[in-house]
Amino acid sequence: MQDEESLVQRAKQRDQKAFAQLYEEHFDKIYRYVALRIGDKTEAEDMTQQVFLNALKSISSFKWKGVPFAAWLFRIAHNQVVDYLRKKNKQAAAPLDESLVSSDSNPQLMAEHSLDVEQLLLATRRLTEAQRQVISLRFAGELSINQVANIMGKSQGAVKALQHSAIVALRKILLAGNNEEVQRI
Q1: Which is it for the CA torsion 154, 160, 162, 163, positive or negative?
Q2: Where in the chain is the domain with CATH 1.10.10.10?
Q3: What is the pLDDT of residues 130-159, one digit of tens each?
Q4: What count of other Cβ atoms lies within 10 Å of the Cβ of residue 43?
Q5: Of 21, 30, 84, 109, which sees the most CB atoms within 10 A?
Q6: Which pLDDT band, with edges at 50, 70 and 90, does 85 fall under?
Q7: What is the enclosing helix (H) or strand (E) of 44?
Q8: Where do the CATH 1.10.1740.10 domains begin and end in the chain?
């Protein structure tokens, strides 16, 4: 944590190498969070770049409060996702993009994985907004309960409860989908 704090301090003083290191350390997590929330790989790449541009513009106003720098980045990403979803709801719905995970060399595994990711994305759409956010932050963003609580402005207990209810709901949705598949065969 101390290293991150000094890195952020250097980035605040416009040290390009320090900001580049922060970018490298956090890009993948922010990207996965955004991609899971919006379901569009290309748009998620653009939005993640915008998160870091916004962070670069605003880093001078960042105040170290003992919370990881990632929490600040996730807050920026969250705000962008909310804006994007508001705009998207005003427009016509777009089809779900291809798999959000890098491809594998085995076509069968690629197809199975693509179906799994698509099923998961469709299933998460049936969760509440708060449940989707917890799942995205915890599993796509790989954040701790404490970090998610700080980002969402909720207690750790509330985040744990949301996570539990989301996982239970996802399990029911996915099992129901698998049972429908078995019945069709």
Answers
A1: positive
A2: 106-185
A3: 888 888 888 878 888 988 888 888 999 999
A4: 16
A5: 30
A6: confident
A7: helix 41-58
A8: 1-94
pLDDT of residue 94 exceeding 50, the answer is: no
What is the residue-wise DSSP string for 80-140?
HHHHHHHHHHHSPPPPPPS-SS---S-HHHHHHHHHHHHHHHHHHTTS-HHHHHHHIIIII
Q: Which of 164, 170, 146 is nearest to 36 (CA)?
A: 170
Distances from the Cα of 20 to the Cα of 10, 14, 47, 50, angstroms:
11, 11, 17, 14
Structure tokens at 181: 């598949």
Look at the pTM and tell me if it is higher than 0.70.
no
- pLDDT in the model for residue 104: 47
**Domain 1-94, CATH 1.10.1740.10 — does that match?**
yes
Is the domain covering 106-185 a CATH 3.90.370.10 domain? no
